[in-house]
Write a structure and sequence with these properties.
The protein has 909 residues and is an alpha+beta fold. 30% of the residues lie in helices and 26% in strands. The chain contains 20 helices and 40 strands. Bound molecules: zinc ion (2 copies).
């Protein structure tokens, strides 16, 4: 079988599709050659030629077959490898040279010593194949840093050399020219040299470097290698174990398969040796795609540094859809550099309370730019809130804020992992876990604490913002063997903005209010004791039926006038049966503010019961008619200019009551009137609440409004006070103090004030923090409320001081108090005297005269009686009664007249 045929059987049989190997060489700097042809490596091509020749030897001499099979395995491994390696090449070259002499065996009689040499060759080749397999399995970083690898290759090369010499001797071949291959040294390539230099630079101990993740990472970066968690794992496992395992495996494969493999062209054999590793699938944590070690490479993975923002619908790292980063696929999550998928994972832990048990943390905020420096040590309980609890004790260390733009650290450690780290730290004394920035002015960091014997005994975390004098430093003691907190947290330094205890209480100015304080009670009760005024010819009584008599703006509100509604009962007061119906033909109204002498016409007067055509209305004697009406009373031009719309309140009569005179006119033009009154009922005024620390206000008497700001305490942690709805927290006050310390300005406008505007005019408020520079704290707030800047004249306002509640961290040391230098005050105000408004007058107080005797003339009645008497026929009973009553009246009148006539002296005489 020639090589092409074998190659075809190995790779081209259809069921296994082998992608072309991606080769990169560390000898020439990282060039990717996508080329399956072996010709680019002369060592490989000559090895294949030798293999080709050997296939016939193997068939003829079965005891040579293992060497032939192993060479095939080595060639396959090397072909699959991603990079050409000088040491592997060297070993393959030596083996190829050795085996190239095998065809001679076909021409000679094989004696026992030769058989022995062949057996040794087979053994040596097993070793070589096992070594190459173990070496190739190693990560590139590990391969270089495991400096002892080279010794293994040297030993192996030595064995090959010695076998080769023996073979040449037994075949009686004397080659003087090519012997340099047996005498030359195992090569040292650029990366091996770099590794040796690196180790030498860091103390010379390979062990110290191998266990120090940061050092390994540094080396990987320096050589542009991929660094991931498998690196540290591989570094701590011994390659000798791996070689040993491979050896055993190889022997098994050879024992079971040599015969058949020669027949089958090695297909299953080589596949078995290689398949497991080459085809193992991983899922990349950065891009979510599946990969194998074979398909992975320096640019295989593309991803975004930041997480997709579903709100703004883009990746904040680059604002573009195509990934902005390229790298190697990674099978395990890491914090070596930012990638989008990392952040939901860290947030899933840090954002919940049931995911971890925080042992200690430090945090400091820059009081100028709000940048936060922080670090923490916790026990990780679960990766996802409400998820399964971790079985193993796991330490979680975080430094900095996990965000794609800034440096951060978020890593976990089990007891076993801590053990590995201890080894490295003990040797290297490199205790730093992570630090966000090298400068001492602003940073966050975490580091291991070692005992004298070099054992990890705890974690020290520190954070400092540039605006703080000292850093926060805490130590969390850790028990290495159990990975648990082993004692109380030690605080070594307190950072942040710390205030001092004031040596004496602060004395504040009393509150000041300029302007009247209004009442929200009506000036007096509504008067309802107005009497009907009418003419004798129109015998009606008017009576208010609604309570209150007038309702203001129940349905409409209008800036120019006020609407009033009421109901009046109109009673026909003529005698029963008097046949004197009253017919109301018109309703009108006039109004007057109490204190004014004259009534003025209203803007509109409407009868509400029925349509306007309801009039005229006829009311029978002793009957009543309900009149529901609405009148519109115009406002004064000044009031109308304010355009105030109040519902259920009238704006016009807010200072003095209004009276409305309703006039009814009958069909003959006779009129009767009734006066109704409306007394303004103010809106309730805002008052100081029970839990208010202060309520700073002034009243505007013109529009009867109270302008005020509540100052309330806070109960939530970190919050200090609420002024006018704005919550001030400790951080905010610390920033204010920092600002004051820097600028020397001890009165700082908190910039939370507002200008409020509405129909009733504008007003504004503002609040200042007063800072005690000696005790480094805000000691009080000054709140000023005043009329708006656009008010024609400034007349009202108030100033009040409120003590600041205790907040933040305090140094337990008293210092003398120092008061702020204040400049903010009320503007100059114009004096204001509340006008005296008349609340009542007697203009509508009218006593109706004693009603005159019924106007029915006696003569007429007598005439009627006589007419009735003269008529024949029966008289109805009712009429008879009425006549009797009239008769009685007439008799009384006649008697009276007689008395009058006799008593009076005769004027005629
Ligand atoms: Zn991006
Ligand atoms: Zn990937």
């Amino acid at each position: 079988m020639d090589y092409q045929e074998m190659h075809h059987q190995l790779h081209g049989s259809g069921d296994v599709i082998v992608p072309p190997p991606v080769r990169s060489t560390s000898l020439t700097t990282a060039t990717n050659i996508v080329n399956p042809v072996v010709n680019d490596n002369p060592v490989m091509s000559s090895a294949m030629q030798v293999l080709d020749q050997l296939s016939s030897v193997g068939k003829a001499l079965p005891f040579v077959a293992p060497a032939f099979v192993i060479l095939k395995i080595i060639i396959d491994m090397e072909r699959r490898a991603q990079d050409v390696d000088a040491k592997c090449n060297d070993l393959l070259e030596r083996i190829t040279f050795m085996l190239s002499h095998m065809p001679v065996l076909l021409k000679i009689e094989i004696m026992a010593p030769t058989r022995k040499v062949i057996d040794r060759i087979n053994e040596t080749m097993k070793d070589a194949a096992s070594l190459i397999a173990a070496y190739r399995k190693q990560n590139r970083v590990v391969r270089r840093l495991s400096i002892s690898n080279r010794e293994k290759f040297m030993t192996c090369a030595e064995d090959v050399n010695s076998c080769c010499r023996d073979l040449l001797m037994s075949l009686q071949i004397h080659q003087s020219i090519q012997l340099d291959i047996l005498t030359r040294k195992v090569p040292l390539d650029e990366d091996d040299e770099a590794a040796e230099t690196f180790v030498a630079k860091h103390g010379g101990s390979v062990d110290a470097v191998m266990h120090d993740r940061e050092l390994v990472k540094e080396f990987a970066e320096q050589r542009h290698f991929v660094m991931d968690d498998s690196v540290m794992e591989q570094l701590s496992t011994n390659i000798a174990d791996s070689v040993q395992q491979n050896h055993i495996r190889l022997e098994g494969i050879l024992r079971d398969n040599v015969q058949s493999s020669i027949v089958d062209g090695l297909k299953s054999l080589a596949a078995e040796m290689l398949a497991a590793e080459a085809e193992q699938k991983f899922t990349c944590v950065q891009c979510d795609t599946q990969f194998t070690n074979y398909t992975n490479g320096p640019k295989a993975c593309s991803f975004h540094r930041a997480e997709y923002d579903s709100w703004t619908k883009h990746f904040p790292c680059c604002s573009a859809a195509p990934p902005c980063e390229f790298g190697t696929h990674r099978a395990k999550h890491h914090c070596d550099y930012p990638y989008g998928k990392f952040f939901p994972r860290s947030r899933g832990v840090l954002g919940y309370v049931d995911t971890m048990e925080e042992w200690s943390s430090v945090e400091d905020t820059n009081l100028e730019n709000d940048e936060v420096q922080k670090a923490s040590v916790s026990k990780l309980l679960r990766w996802v809130s409400r998820g399964d609890r971790l079985q193993e004790n796991t330490l979680l260390i975080t430094v900095g804020r996990a965000w794609y733009k800034n440096p951060y650290y978020f890593n976990t450690f089990t007891a076993k992992e801590m053990e590995t780290i201890t080894k490295s730290v003990r040797l290297s004394r490199r205790t730093l876990i992570f630090r966000t920035a090298p400068n001492d002015n602003e940073f966050a960091m975490a580091e291991w604490i070692l005992s004298i014997s070099g054992k990890i005994t705890g974690v020290r975390i520190a954070a400092k913002a540039a605006t703080s004098t000292n850093p926060y430093i805490r130590v969390c003691p850790i028990d290495l063997s159990t990975c648990t907190k082993s004692g109380d947290i030690l605080t070594l330094s307190e950072g942040g903005m710390r205030s001092y205890l004031p040596a004496s209480p602060y004395v504040l100015l009393p509150p000041l209010r300029i302007g009247p304080v209004l009442s929200d009670e009506p000036a007096r009760p509504v008067r309802t004791n107005f009497k009907t005024r009418t003419s004798p010819a129109l015998r009606v009584i008017l009576k208010t039926m609604s309570d209150p008599p007038l309702t203001a703006n129940p349905e409409f509100a209008n800036g120019r006038c006020d609407y009033y509604r009421g109901t009046v009962s109109v009673f026909n007061n003529n005698a029963p049966g008097s046949l004197n119906p009253v017919t109301i033909a018109g309703v009108s109204a006039a109004y007057r503010m109490v204190g004014n002498a004259e009534y003025a016409p209203v803007e509109q007067c409407k009868v509400l019961n029925g349509t306007d055509s309801a009039l005229p209305v006829t009311i029978e004697p002793r009957q009543a008619w309900q009149l529901a009406f609405e009148v519109a009373v115009p406002r004064t031009p000044a009031d109308a200019a304010l355009d105030v719309r109040w519902w259920n309140r009238a704006f016009g009569p807010r200072h003095r009551p209004v009276r409305i005179r309703i006039t009814l006119e009958d069909i003959e033009g006779e009129e009767c009137t009734l006066v109704l009154e409306h007394v303004f009922k103010p809106y309730p005024l805002t008052k100081r609440k029970d839990d208010d620390l202060a309520f700073v206000f002034f009243d505007d008497p013109n529009v009867l409004a109270r302008r005020g700001v509540h100052v309330q305490p806070c109960t939530s942690e970190g919050e200090v006070i609420v002024i006018g709805g704005t919550t001030l927290n400790t951080k905010r006050l610390e920033k204010t103090v920092y600002q004051a310390l820097k600028s020397g300005k001890t009165e700082v406008d908190l910039a939370i004030g507002r200008t409020m505007s509405g129909a009733e005019g504008t007003w504004e408020w503002a609040a200042w923090a007063l800072i005690d520079i000696s005790c480094r704290r805000v000691y009080a707030f000054k709140i000023i409320v005043q009329e708006g800047k656009d008010a024609p004249v400034q007349r009202f306002g108030a100033v009040e001081y409120v003590l600041c509640p205790a907040y933040g961290d305090t140094v337990n040391k008293p210092r003398p108090v120092s008061y702020a230098t204040e400049t903010a005050r009320l503007p100059p105000l114009e004096a204001y005297t509340l006008p005296e408004y008349p609340q009542d007058d007697a203009l509508d107080d009218f006593k109706p005269p004693v009603p005159p005797k019924p106007a029915t003339p006696v003569i007429e009645a007598a005439g009627l009686a006589s007419t009735l008497a003269m008529s024949a026929g029966p008289v109805p009973v009712e009429l008879t009664n009425r006549l009797a009553s009239i008769d009685a009246n007439l008799a009384r009148i006649a008697a009276a007249l007689e008395k009058l006539v006799t008593a009076a002296p005769s004027t005629k005489s």
